[in-house]
Amino acid sequence: MAEMVTIREQDLIDSVADALQYISYFHPMDYIRALAAAYEREENPAAKDAMAQVLANSKMCAQGHRPICQDTGIVNVFLKWGQNCRLESDKSMQEVVDEGVRRAYNHPENKLRASIVADPAFTRRNTKDNTPCVLNVEFVPGNTVSVDVAAKGGGSENKSKFKMMNPSDSIVDWVLEMIPQMGAGWCPPGQIGIGIGGTAEKAILLAKESLMEEIDIHDLKARGPRTDTEALRLEIFEKVNALGIGAQGLGGLTTVLDVKIKEWPCHAAGKPVAMIPNCSATRHAHFTLDGSGPSFLETPKLDEWPDVTWAPDKDAKRVDLDTLTHEEVQSWKHGDRLLLNGTMLTGRDAAHKRIQDMLAKGEELPVDFKGRAIYYVGPVDPVVGEVVGPAGPTTATRMDKFTDMMLDLGLLAMIGKAERGQGATQVIAKHKVAYLMAVGGAAYLVARAIREAKVVGFEDLGMEAIYEFTVSDMPVTVAVDAEGNNVHQLAPLDWKERIAREAEAV
To answer: What is the C-alpha to C-alpha distance for residues 435 and 373, in angstroms, rounded to an integer?
Structure first.
């Protein structure tokens, strides 16, 4: 019988903590190479600008060791535990791994945003340290422990799809039906993970696990598929990109950088299929423990990042938020690029719900929204020398049900990530205001535009408090103008038609 290998509790804790800090500011290099190649191919200036922001933000985060995105994710850990290994601990595996998460998210030099809430159906109390993680353990032959860690942002995780298909149903047709419904809140371009087979929970787990694999779709395309699954990956990849959704949903040639598929045998009566996207803040890493000590990931070289810089568009309109009028807002057209200056308020889910409750009770609000702009954001805590931590936009559709209420309070503009729903678009047109889109996955870059930040309401809500930000040349795109023209509906349609025309001409 093989000799047992002892894995010390502290080694697992230290390795998990190191990996989570690492992925908070270092993109996987396969993702950076794939995005850089997509940036070079892209023909839509708006999509190309969005990708430039993500690439520039990525290098800034690698240099500054600060989070790629303000949403530092829910931690997923996949442990493949060698059967000849024993954990030297009197704690459960969940407790040990959670201690690694706790240390990573409370690291004093790079404190990460705690996004996990306990009592999810009711009080939704923040656990303050991003624990517990979602842990999956599999026992395998061998004398090592293989660990994959990932931090999945809510914007992409919320777009997960699942269907119990009939055996004869088309997976391709279902994917092409679901992708447009996902909108742009998952911050394309990213990857799509698909799990096929098993049972409902197994299919979803397969989809999540597939996203740990390296991007290789263009190598596969060059050599050609060798299996039915590889052929399916290529078919979905080509057909999804032909939808023209593009970076951040602004229309363009690249919506997905890769399609991953994992399978498991299933019952003859069904075909469970799950699909989970990875956003532009792709965060995952792998390490192995062999009993010799903790595992620390190797720092990538900065010259591996492409030489892509981002600067404010010289043709963008500069806007003074402190003198904003209805007339100026109504002059903006969908697709216009703006550079915001002056002061704005912030607020997201919890703040909007509290405002609703206070208005129902006739209570006075802590701030006046008349004539103001609101930014949907929950920033990372600042570290020494920062006004605010990474502060990219959160998914705007979650605020759709509050839009009429907020516009009745006199708001002139809203800033968030991705599209608005049809109902919110109609409300925006009714009030003759505008919705502006900031790039998701460029949180550190956006934070550099914030010159001052102070809490002006609901301080007890932490990152969901109402702040007042003073900004300088913060880049946004007019996504819904005062007439209700929606760039997230119009631009992808244009690019879908253009891609189809070019394909027919070949």
So the answer is: 10
